[in-house]
Specification:
Elements (H helix, E strand, L loop, with lengths): L1 E2 L4 E2 L4 E2 L4 E2 L4 E2 L3 E3 L4 E2 L4 E2 L3 E3 L4 E2 L4 E4 L12 E4 L4 E2 L4 E3 L8 E4 L4 E2 L4 E2 L4 E2 L4 E2 L4 E2 L4 E2 L4 E2 L4 E2 L4 E2 L4 E2 L4 E2 L7 E4 L4 E5 L1 H6 L4 H15 L5 H8 L7 H12 L7
Parallel strand pairs: 1-4, 2-5, 3-6, 4-7, 5-8, 6-9, 7-10, 8-11, 9-12, 10-13, 11-14, 12-15, 13-16, 14-17, 15-18, 16-19, 17-20, 18-21, 19-22, 20-23, 21-24, 22-25, 23-26, 25-27
Antiparallel strand pairs: 27-28
Helix pairs in contact: 3-4
């Protein structure tokens, strides 16, 4: 373990042998950090927080602080972060609240650029990108491979579907369907995230089916229930359309349309 002599690490923190902690960083009690993680200078990490392997946390980040929720009264809640995440300058990630299940979760292989905020009880998946200044209110879900452009704002209890792309400055107050591009304030759909899907190896046939599904949801004039009914015959042949149907069925806020 390489802890700078100017850092402060609480005796009740548990750090793997090869964790690096830079000068003037503060690691509080009940913080657990796994092997290979690098903590830069001037980082503050409070617990209960568990951080996985091979993460990189840059200067002035605040990780595991109490939630910004007036209802919070000191309950025992926690933050869990997976492996190989990059967390850049001035990122803030808060612990959960008792009312929201008690935990904020961040998966693995995510790229969090400077000044982003992940509020209490959020659940961020794997391989996401949150660009500078993106902010998640409480209880937000970000599914795998989603991308949020700079200064995207997401309302509490919203879900951003997998492989979705939110353009810079988007104001999101409803759920965002997987595989689509949205932008604007308020956000509106702007087509299928075709280039992103191609980069992730989606086949031409799958893209063709998803384009049909997109037109069914957004351009046919159908209600959500009618769109689900129209899409269901496509699900067996194209599982990705099944993902869209399942997302529509479970959405409680409605989708960005």
């Amino acid at each position: 373990m390489s802890v700078d002599s100017r850092a402060v690490v609480d005796s009740r923190a548990r750090l793997a042998d090869d964790v690096t902690v830079g000068p003037f960083s503060v690691i509080g009690p009940e913080v657990e950090i796994a092997a290979g993680t690098w903590i830069g200078p001037h980082v503050v990490i409070n617990g209960p927080t568990r951080i996985g392997r091979d993460n990189r946390i840059f200067q002035f980040a605040s990780i595991g602080e109490i939630p910004q929720d007036k209802k919070f009264a000191g309950e025992r809640t926690r933050l869990e972060i997976g492996d190989r995440n990059t967390i850049r300058e001035y990122v803030t990630i808060n612990r959960g609240t008792e009312q929201g299940g008690g935990v904020t979760r961040v998966g693995s292989d995510n790229w969090f650029m400077a000044y982003i905020h992940i509020a209490h009880d959020c659940a961020v998946g794997n391989h996401t990108i949150l660009a500078n200044g993106a902010s998640l209110a409480g209880h937000v879900v970000i599914e795998d491979h989603a991308i949020l452009g700079g200064f995207t704002l997401v309302h509490q209890f919203c879900t951003i579907g997998g492989y979705a792309f939110c353009g810079m400055g988007s104001a999101v107050s409803k759920d965002v369907l997987p595989y689509v591009i949205i932008s604007g304030a308020p956000a509106c759909p702007h087509g299928l995230n075709a280039e992103g899907l191609k980069r992730h190896g989606f086949s031409a046939d799958t893209l063709k089916a998803l384009r049909r599904a997109y037109k069914t949801v957004f351009r046919s004039g159908l209600t959500t229930e009618q769109a689900i009914e129209a899409l269901e015959p496509m699900c067996a042949e194209t599982p990705e359309v099944g993902v869209l149907v399942a997302f529509l069925q479970k959405s409680e806020r409605g989708i960005v349309r």
